[in-house]
Amino acid sequence: MLARRTAIGTLVRAPVLRDPWIGRAVLAAIIALLLLLSFFPERHRGVVTLTPTDPNSLGLSGTLGQLGALNSVFGNQAAVEVALKIGRSVSVRESVAKQLHLMDRLHFESRIAMHRWLEKKMTIRSLRGGIVQIETMNRDPVLAKELVGAYASAIQAELAKVSRRQTEYKRDVLVQLVTEASERLARARGAYDTFRLRSRYANPESSIEAIGSQVPRIQANIRAKEVELNAARQFATDDNMSVRQILAELGALRSQLAAAEATNPTQRDSVGRAVAASTQAERLERELKIAQALYDSYMRYLEGTSVEDLTSTASVRLLEQPFVDTERQINWGPLAAAIALFLLWGAMEFYRLRPPVGERMIVRET
Fold first, then answer.
1. Helix (H, G, I), strand (E, B) or coil at 322
2. Cβ neighbourhood burial of 229 (10 Å; 0-12, 13-18, 19+)
3. Distance separating alpha carbons of residues 101 and 154, to the nearest angstrom
4. Which is the most buried residue in 8, 85, 146, 172, by most CB within 10 A?
5. Domain of 29?
6. pLDDT digits over 229-271, tens only?
7. Which range among 134-148, 310-324, 331-345 shows the weakest confidence by mean pLDDT?
8. Which phi and psi (to 5°) does residue 316 adopt?
9. HSE-up (13 A, CA, CB side) for residue 54
10. What three-state secondary structure class fits 48?
């Protein structure tokens, strides 16, 4: 019973490879051709690197943080993912094709074929540190450089469109908020002015303080008059004209004190009125300050959207301008085939030197 023939044995006994020297010549020629194809035709690697922009470098961190901008943090993974998604979109490929006139330049049969070619040739990936790299391999170094440059410009333009759409939406919301805050401010200011007119207090705070301070002043005047009365009684009776005048002034001061200490809020220049007026004035002033603060805040954010529009194209920062790598690019497919064929050649030579026991006689005969 004959031994089962191995795959290497089958190759060794193939018609072309049966003669060792002819087989070696054929394998050497194929390997040489594959090695030649590994370096020729020469391919060039075009590269560009970019990264999301840091808002702090633009002086907009406060406004953009409050409004929830897309590019909130330098190297933010979400921003990188957005850049990668947009870079692989159909709109970017259309923009690149229009910018470089690829349909006429490379003579594609259809736009679908052009999109497939771009999708196959262009590599967009993220690196460490929130860096996005765009690269391509092409025999034409000028085209390779133009392709990566056009992709970088298209990604920047698309991200700017997204930023402007987002800013427009935020502006609409802020305009509505500013309108509502303006109406609230007008109502609060009107209520405060109405209170001042009704209470006859041009400056409620100072007027209320004056009412509150008159009680200690009247009490001090009463004590002074009482001292003066006691001194006058040392030399005259109550029927004396000077003593009677002091008594009248003392009675008037006590009447003023009683009126000032009244708790009735309707009585003018009384403690009760001062308390009621101060409570209402504080409430109206507080509402006015809140309305003013909201209006000022919304106005500041609304002004910030104008700055966002001006800096929308700064959503991406180029780290390296488009360039063609100076390192020689190797076609790894033919090189891998050459290495595999060389290993197969070595296995065949080893088979000829030391064939399996069952196949030695066959090899000798051949």
1. strand
2. middle
3. 14
4. 146
5. 1-42+329-361
6. 777 777 777 677 777 777 777 777 676 666 655 555 555 555 5
7. 310-324
8. -130, 135
9. 8
10. strand
**Residue 315 resides in a domain:** no
d(CA 140, CA 158): 27
Number of domains in the chain: 2
Domain boundary among 306, 321, 338: 306
CA dihedral sign of residues 96, 99, 100, 103:
positive
Judgement on whether residues 297 and 220 belong to the same structural domain of the protein: yes
Structure tokens at 79: 């921003």
- The conformational region for residue 135 under phi > 0 = left, psi -120 to 50 = alpha, else beta, is beta
One-letter identity of residue 325: D
Share of residues in the chain with pLDDT > 90 (%): 19
Q: Which residues of 126-152 are buried (b: 16+ CB within 10 A; e: fewer)?
A: beeebbbbbbbebeebebbbbbbbbbb
Same domain, 264 and 349: no
Q: pLDDT of 54-80, one tens digit each?
A: 544 444 444 444 444 444 434 467 788
